[in-house]
Request: fold
Amino acid sequence: MRSVIPRPFLLVLTLMLVVGGIAFIELRLDAVGTAAPRASADSSPNTAPRPGEPKAQPEVAEERGMSVPAKNHSEDMRDRMASNPEAKDERIARKEKEFDRAEEIAAPSGFINADDVSINAARGEKVILLDFWTYSCINCQHTQPYINRWHERYADDRLQVVGVHTPEFGFEKEYANVEQAVREAGIEYPVVLDNSYATWNAYDQRYWPAMYLIDADGFIRYRHFGEGAYGETEAKIRELLAERDRLQN
Reply:
C-alpha cells in the first residue's frame, strides 16, 4: 500500500528534525557553560565589603571563620584582676603552700648606706635580693662585683639589694671596719650589721655568701649558696621583676 505523503516531503521533514535537534543540544550546552561555579567546601569566603556596606566587626569576622587576635598575658591578667577582686588572695594562698615567707630583719646592730631596712615594708613594691656576707670571706669578695652590677642595672626597676653582714670573726663586728670594707667594695645599697646572728638564724643560715630572692608578695623564690650561677641568678631577678610589673599593672 502506498503512502499518502510524497517521499521528497518526508526527506525534508526528517532533515529539519535532525537539524533542530542538534541546535537544541548546542543551546543547552552553552547555558550550562555560563552558569556560576559553586564554592568548594574549603574555600575561604570573600569578606571584602561591598560599596556602602559597613566593615565587619570582630564578632562578625569570628562568625565567618576568621581568626581574631587573642589578648596577651598582661591584658588577660589585668582583666582577671579587675573582674575578680579575690584574685590576689587566691594568689597569696597558692604561694603559701609552695614557698616560704621571707623573715624580717631581726635585731640589727647598725646600718650602712641607710637609716633602716625592712623586708615587710618593701612587700607589694619591690623584689629583694638578700645577700648574707662577711667582708674577709674570699668567696664573698668574688661575688661582690656581680651584686654591685645587679644593683646598678635593676634598682630603677624596683630591685632592692640588702646586704646582711654577719661576721665570722670578732674584728668583723666593728662598725668602722665594716664601713671601710663597704666603701672599698663600692657597695651603694643598704647593709645591715647582723652581729648577734639574729637575721642569720631567722633564715636558718649556714654559708657565706648566700643569696635569697624575695618576690613582691614577700615569698622566697630562689636561694643560692657560694660562688657561681650568676647567669641563673640574674635570670631569676628579671623573672621576678617582670612578675612584679604584671601584678602592679
Remarks:
- The first strand starts at residue 100 and ends at 101.
- The chain has a mean pLDDT of 79.
